[in-house]
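Figure 2 data, in text form.
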Amino acid sequence: VQLQASGGGLVQAGASLRLSCVVSGRTFSIYRMGWFRQAPGKEREFAAGIRWNSGTTHYADSVKGRFTISRDNAKSTVYLQMNSLKPEDTAVYYCAAARPESGVSYDYWGQGTEVTVSS
C-alpha cells in the first residue's frame, strides 16, 4: 500500500484547506485511514480517522467541529477538509492506513504535506 498526501500550503487564520491522500496498491486490505499531524518541536498526534468501508469517523478534540474527514472509495482517496484554521494547526500532516488486524496502530504512512497558518 502506498499513500500520497497533498494539498498543504500557507494560509491565514480563519481560512480553509483540503488535504487529499491517494491510496494505491492493496487497497482491499485497508480497514481504517487516519490523518495525523506533527507541529515543530512536538510529537506526532492523531487528528481524524475514518473506517474505510463504513465511513465511521472520529476526531481529536482539538479539531472537532472544524475538520471533516471523508473518503471516496471509487477514487481510493481520503480527504481532510480543514475550516477555521488556527495558527496552532500549523504542522506537517500525514495520512496513514491500517489493516484490520492492527488494532489501534497504523501500518502504512504517506510522506506528509505541510500546512502553515499565519496569524
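Caption note: The mean pLDDT is 95.
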